[in-house]
Amino acid sequence: MPAPGKDYAAMLSAGLKFCPHARECGACQTVNEPYEESLLAKDEAVYGLFHALAEPDAIEPIIGMDDPFYYRNKVISPFAAGKRKKAPAPAKIGKDGRGAKRPQKAEPREILCGMYAQGSHRIVDTRHCLVENEQAKAVVYAVRDLMRRWSIAPYDEDAGTGFLRHVVVRAGHKSGEVLVTLVTNDEAFPSSRSFCRELVRLCPYVTTVVQNVNTRQTNVVLGQAERVLYGPGFILDELCGLSFRVSSRSFYQVNARQTEVLYDTAISLAGLDGTQTVIDAYCGTGTIGLVAAKRGAARVIGVDNVESSIRDARENARHNGAENVRFEVADADEFMVAMAKSGETADVLLMDPPRAGASEAFLRAAALLGPSRVVYISCNPKTQVRDVKYLVDHGYRLEKVQPVDMFPHTGHIESIALLQKAPAKAD
Ligand SMILES: C[S@@+](CC[C@H](N)C(=O)[O-])C[C@H]1O[C@@H](n2cnc3c(N)ncnc32)[C@H](O)[C@@H]1O
Questions:
Q1: Residue 368 per-residue DSSP state
Q2: pLDDT digit string (tens) for 256-275?
Q3: Does 217 show up as a binding residue in the annotation?
Q4: Which residues line ligand 1 (CB under 6 A)?
Q5: Using one digit for the tens of pLDDT, what is the confidence trace for 289-338?
C-alpha cells in the first residue's frame, strides 16, 4: 500500500480520503496522515503527562473511531466580502460608434464562507471538509447562495457594517434534526420569514432557525439577544438511549458518536450502585448527569453557569422522566464552596470543565467535600493533569486515565481520569 500522506494521488487511488483544504485551513493537522499514527501520538502525549501520577497500566490506550470522518455535528462559518471581480477592459470604439457596448452593471462582490485559516481572519473555502457533518455544511452554502440572491451584505469586521456575520449549524446525529443560527449585526431582519421558507425549501432537514443578534465588534460569535424565526427554537437528539434538547446557546458535544463512548466509559468508572449522590459539575444540558441518573445514581445535582443550558437540562430531565435530578444555574466554584460549607455530602463528583480546567477554589472545595470518587472529563489534558495533581496532593489516588478520541485528525485530546479517595493514614 502506498504511504498515505506522502503521495496524495496514491492515497486517492488506494480509496483513502484526502482533504484538499488541509494546508490552508490548518484545523485538522493530521487529516492526510494515517489515523492510527495520530492515535499513537495522542497516546504518547497522555502517557507523558500522567505517568508520574499513576501506575503505568492505569493509563489506557485511546479509544479511536471506526469511521473518523464527518463527525462534527456543529459547523460554524463566518461570512465576508471577497474581492470585487475585475471589470472587463473598455472596448475600443470606432469613430462611427462601432464596438460601443452598453455599460455593464458593476459585478457584485463575492461572498466568502468556510473557515478562518489558522491564526488569522482569512476565510478559506472548505466545501469539501472531511470532518464536518455534510448536511450541516450544505446549509452554510445554501445560506451563502440566498445572501447572493437576496443581496444580503456580509459583515465587514473592520468597519462594523454589513448584516450577516456567521451561521452556526447543529445537526442531531440520531434525530437528523438541524438547528440553524443566523448571527446578524442588526435586530431588524426584513423578509426573515421568506428567507427561512426558502432555506427550508433548499435544505428540508432544517427543523428550526434562530436569529442571534451580535452588534459588538468582537471575535465572540454569538451575542446575547435571540429570537426564533422558524420551528421550535431547539432540536432534539439522542445520546445513550436518552433524548436531549439542544438550543442555540447551549453546550453540546461536537462528536455525538464518540460522546456515547465517553459517557459509557465515565459512568462505568463512576461505579454507580443505586445508592450514590452524584454531582455533575459543568453539566451543560445535563447530558452526562441524566445518563448517570438512569444508570444507578440515587440522586444527581447538576450545575452550570449558562442559563439556557440549565433550562434545557431541566426540560431534558422532564421529558426523560428523571425525577432524581436537580439542576442549578450557578458558578461551579461558588456552588462547590457552598456545598462543602453546608455539610451536604456527595459520593461521586463528575466534572467536565472547559479547557482552562477547574479553579483552585473548586478543587479545594471538592477535596473538602470528599466524594469517594472523582470522574474528571477534560478536553485539555494539560490543565487536567494540573488539577489531578492537586487532588492527588489532597487525599486522592489516580486510578485510571482513559483518553477517548473526540476530535479525530486534530491535535485535540479528550480524556477521563478516575480518582479515588485514598484511605486515611493510621497515626
Ligand atoms: C466541556 S462543557 C461540558 C458540558 C457537559 N458536561 C457535556 O458533556 O455536554 C463545559 C461546561 O462548563 C460550563 N461552564 C464554564 N464555566 C463555568 C463556571 N465557572 N461555572 C459553571 N459552569 C461553567 C459551560 O457552560 C459548559 O456547559
A1: H
A2: 999 999 999 999 999 999 99
A3: no
A4: 251, 253, 282-284, 287-288, 303-306, 309, 331-332, 352-354, 379
A5: 999 999 999 999 999 999 989 999 999 999 999 999 999 999 999 999 99
Does 253 appear as a known binding residue?
A: yes
Q: Is 331 annotated as a binding residue?
A: no
How confident is the model over 350-366, as a mean pLDDT? 98
Atom of ligand 1 nearest to the CA of 250: 27
- Protein residue with least CA distance to atom 6, ligand 1: 283
DSSP string, 218-274: SS-S--SEEEEEESSSEEEEEETTEEEEEETTS---S-HHHHHHHHHHHHHHHT--S
> Which one of 3.20.20.220, 3.40.50.620, 3.40.50.150, 3.40.640.10 gives the CATH number of domain 35-69+255-421?
3.40.50.150
Give the CA count within 13 Å in the CB-facing half-sphere of 327.
27
CATH 2.40.50.1070 intervals, the chain: 74-84+107-239
Q: How far is the CA of 303 from the centre of ligand 1 (A)?
A: 8
> Which three-class secondary structure state does DSSP give residue 5?
coil
What CATH number labels 74-84+107-239? 2.40.50.1070
Catalytic-residue membership of 129: no
- CATH code 3.40.50.150 region(s) in the chain: 35-69+255-421
